[in-house]
Amino acid sequence: MSVLNILCFSNESFAKELGKRTDDRDVESYIFKEQRGDSQDALTFLRPRKHPEKIRPLLASLDVVDAAIIEIQRVDASLGEVLVASSIAGIEKGVAVINPEEGGWVDPNQVKTILNQAGLQSWSISERFDPHEIKEISWRFLDEMSEIRDLRSAEKSCVPVDQHFNVKGVGLVAIGTVQSGTISKHDNIVVSPGGFSGVIRSLQVMDVDVDVANSGDRVGIAIRNMKDGSLERGALLSVNGDEDLFETHNSSSLTYVRAPFQKRKIEIGMVIHASTDLQFVVGRVKNINEDQILVEWDSSLTIRPNSDRRLILS
Hints:
By secondary structure, the chain is of the alpha+beta class. The protein contains six helices and 21 strands. It has three domains: about 5-145, P-loop containing nucleotide triphosphate hydrolases (Rossmann fold, 3-Layer(aba) Sandwich); about 155-245, Elongation Factor Tu (Ef-tu), domain 3 (Beta Barrel), CATH 2.40.30; about 245-314, Translation factors (Elongation Factor Tu (Ef-tu), domain 3). The longest helix is centred in the middle third of the chain and has 14 residues, at about 130-145. The mean pLDDT is about 95.
């Protein structure tokens, strides 16, 4: 099975046309499966339900997606924020779907100008909402990502924890998306940071028991022999021996790229937030040298130095 995770910024009825809802926390998941040749592949549309009131669901979605479908009912600040965030996250595959509210109108030329200004020149514009067309475009995106998926799967394993809970008769269960590598039933796994360890008792992908979970899979991991309190949101799971993939920082020297439309200058003493692999960490700027900044974090930040995903600062 190949899976493509897609940001879906839209209203609820739009998302329901694209897939079956399976998760309705701060980020809703809508899944569409299809048999394609010998493989049953899947599209997972992630809708940050609490945006624009909260930015964290949007950033959490951008941590795991490789494409975006944006419904444009009107041109406003929240749309601008989503487009800029998608741009700085490096989302090059996307569709802006013009779907105005009843009695409203959105100018396609204005949308094209905004996409270009936001650095999303590679995105296309659809002037009508056709769920079948959106799915066909998404399948094309999935096929175009095959080489990147192979490269990620060949890397060391990393699963950021999104949720965790205890299930009677099963034990500790962690939910997350495989960002790189693969994990298998009976693997010994390690938590970073912390160093806690356990054994994978079983795996589920889309409510189906599997022996292996691959890059891009949303996976449920039943873990035995792991202490209560070992997991928290943003903890990184890896197969034993792969944990040297990570670096844990109390402070970081970063090269930053200014976001489109950014007016405020970064200054010494400024408080910023970093988002990566479902971590959301507060820091303070200690030094600036042109496009280099030194940030001291309030709590440790664990990163994958060779990741093809970007650390987002807000």
